[in-house]
Amino acid sequence: MGFAGPVGDGAGVRGWRALADLALPLTCAGCGGPGSRWCPGCADLLARELLPGVVTGRLEGVPVLAAGDHTGALRRLVTAYKDGERRDLRPLVARVLVRPLTVAVGPREGVPLVVAPSRGATRRQRGDSPVADAVRAATRLLPGTRSSVADVLRVSGAVRDQTGLGRAARAANLAGRVRVRPGWEPPAGPVWLVDDVVTTGATATASVEALRAVGCTVAGVVSATRVL
């Protein structure tokens, strides 16, 4: 297990996380019960919360597709995976994402997916990109040729943590701050933006605007959960 280097760099963060996984007892991320990553009871709750269809809305003139609302077991799953360092839940998050991705991609093959950005400080602190990793895992579960996944959106400049901010404050915080990584070649066809949760739509809106600014056609937004 290699995790030499500064504690704050990517390799160091991943190494210490792996060591902690070995040392800590296995608990359910949904209820805290011992012995499993996601217990049968929470699995039953999650199955009931995933809607037969896909929750839809609209943002920036494009559809928003989500597997369910940001509540209950579904919310606990997504939050534990991304913010609670429970990367062992990636296969389950990927299966949740497959539902709206299947609707978005349909029978077409190789549809480009672009991952919504995190703040630079957040990316550095985590040492990885959990949403991008879950999206890549989800594409392996889709039928046909695997869709490409581009983790090319970045938040530039000083922005506040979005947690606790209202709709207007979130929009102002990110206005003009999302950029496409220099050197990325936009695909010829439409792309789908993918995130773990669409809350007020501020990140998705800024991301759609950034993609359009470099010539992308955005077909819509896919997320595991939504608050909109």
Automatic annotation (TrEMBL):
| Stored InterPro entries | ComF/GntX_DNA_util-trans, PRTase-like, PRTase_dom
Keyword terms, alphabetized: Glycosyltransferase, Transferase
Q: Name one GO molecular function term.
A: glycosyltransferase activity
SUPFAM superfamilies the record matches: PRTase-like
Which Gene3D superfamilies does this UniProt record tie to the protein? 3.40.50.2020
Domain of life of the native organism? Bacteria
Keyword Signal in record:
no
Q: Which PANTHER family match?
A: DNA UTILIZATION PROTEIN YHGH
The UniProt similarity line reads: Belongs to the ComF/GntX family.
Q: Which named protein is this?
A: Predicted amidophosphoribosyltransferases
**Species this chain originates from:** Kytococcus aerolatus
